[in-house]
Amino acid sequence: MSNALKGTILGLLIISILTTAIYFGLAWYYRDEFSYNTWINGVYCTGKSVSDVNFELSHGFTYNGLTIFDYEGNPHQIPADAINFNFDYTPILESYKQSQNHYLWIDNLFQGVSGRYITPVIDYCEVALEDILSSLAFFKPQVDEVAVKKTEHGYQLINNRANVLNCDVAKTLIREAINKQETHLDLFIYFESLPLDDRMISELDLWSKIEEFQNCRIVYQMGDELVPLDASVVSYWITLDESGRFYFDKNRNLVLDENKVREFVTNLASQYDTVGGVRQFMSSRGEMVAVSGGIYGNILDQEAEYAWLLENFHTKVDLVREPEYIKKGMFQGINDIGNTYIEIDLSNQVMYYYHEGELIIETPVVTGDKRRRWSTPEGVNYVYAKQRNRILRGPGYASPVKFWMPVNGNIGIHDASWRRNFGGEIYLTDGSRGCINTPYEDMKVIFDLAVVGTPVVMYY
């Protein structure tokens, strides 16, 4: 054997020994760690312990809980922290590591980074989960009832035989979803309707008649306010017999109680009729004042509205109706003064004119002479006429004025060329006969701007 051959054989032997040593050295290295080229859930695990890998996998794991949807699609939350949700990869990692033969680590040489995907062992409090589910109405035991009940919102149907959840199936699905860390579960198809007996069928037939009766789509427009004739209102219009049971006509239809309709119209008028009533008014002097009396405001035509409702209720007309009025102010509703008005502070002898909420005129005035008992009466009145170059006449006087705006009988707002001074305490001893004497220039502006119908708020 030549020396060259001997050298080659010796070199190969040395390489073989070194390779074997390296191979078994790595096998020894991997005996307590994950083997070469091990990937789990996208995490490189080679040479790492079970606890190290569990830490990395846990750090990247999040689960906030499950949202379940009921029959109507409403969401209900089962938060993970509310059921003491816990997870641990350790048992699965231990099992996987034990399945690895560290002497065969070379088998992983050509394994891709996709590796293996594992799920953690899930644990949560069953009692807490049961408490959450039992708090949901559709999980609670239902009384076996089908009945029509009167509530503040009108008659309603209680039907515990319709859309009943199969609780056993639902709970199984919820547990499975949590164990799989799913975030949404729709329970719609697990709601079912249960069989009905004759009494229940009869109650459903009654409900169909009541539902049709209560289906009123008339809405009264009272100024800026809307008064809908919904079930809470018209449910009281169903005629009941002396025993409080529903009364039917010969065609088995519910009967409209006309007295209740009239009662509704009366109540509507009592709430929105404003002529002569007491109004709470925010004055320009910065305080709320109660103003009573006067001729301005609204008075509903109760007979016309009663007749209209009787004629239109059963037609199921869908509209927003402004009622008919015997007397109609510039604005309607409880706040019928609006934001365009004349305000007269009789105590401070100041008159204001507001247009769409903006103060246009503020002027001193002189009102009725208090010493002679001609004090200007308070109240909410309105401009019901406008005249130029009028002579105001009364016992012992004839006073020509350029601008005249009557607001309540013979009491009006006008210029007073015979006066040099206005405001202050003049009205206590040298006031008018009840009218509101106004400086010429300010009176001219107010006369040009104010229209017939403008409210006039007068208070002390």
Radius of gyration over C-alpha positions, nearest whole angstrom: 44 Å
From the spread of the alpha carbons, the general shape counts as elongated
Q: Order of strands across the biggest sheet?
A: 21-20-19-27-22
Helical fraction? 25-40%
Number of strands: 27
Strand composition percent: 25-35%
CATH architecture group name of one domain: Beta Barrel
CATH homologous group name of one domain: L,D-transpeptidase catalytic domain-like
Euclidean distance between termini CA atoms: 137 Å
> Stretches where pLDDT falls below 50 for ≥5 residues?
none
Give the class from helix and strand content and strand pairing: alpha+beta
Mean pLDDT: 90
Q: Tell me the number of helical segments per DSSP (H or I, 4 or more residues long).
A: 11
Classify the fold: give the CATH topology of one domain.
L,D-transpeptidase catalytic domain-like
Task: Explain how this protein is built.
- With 460 residues, the protein is of the alpha+beta class.
- Among the domains are: 218-333, Ubiquitin-like (UB roll), CATH 3.10.20.800; 339-459, L,D-transpeptidase catalytic domain-like, CATH 2.40.440.
- Helices cover 28% and strands 27% of the residues.
- The chain is built from eleven helices and 27 strands.
- It has helices at residues 3-29, 50-59, 90-99, 126-134, 167-179, 198-214, 231-234, 258-272, 302-312, 426-430, 440-449, and strands at residues 39-40, 43-44, 65-69, 75-79, 86-88, 121-123, 146-151, 154-159, 164-165, 184-186, 191-192, 217-222, 225-228, 278-282, 288-292, 299-300, 318-321, 325-327, 341-345, 350-355, 358-364, 379-382, 387-394, 397-408, 411-415, 436-438, 455-459.
- The strands form ten sheets. A five-stranded mixed beta sheet has the order 21-20-19-27-22, with helices on one face. A four-stranded mixed beta sheet has the order 23-24-25-26, with helices on one face.
- Helix 8 (258-272) crosses helix 9.
- The chain is elongated and about 155 Å long.
- The chain starts with a helix and ends with a strand.
- The mean pLDDT is 90.
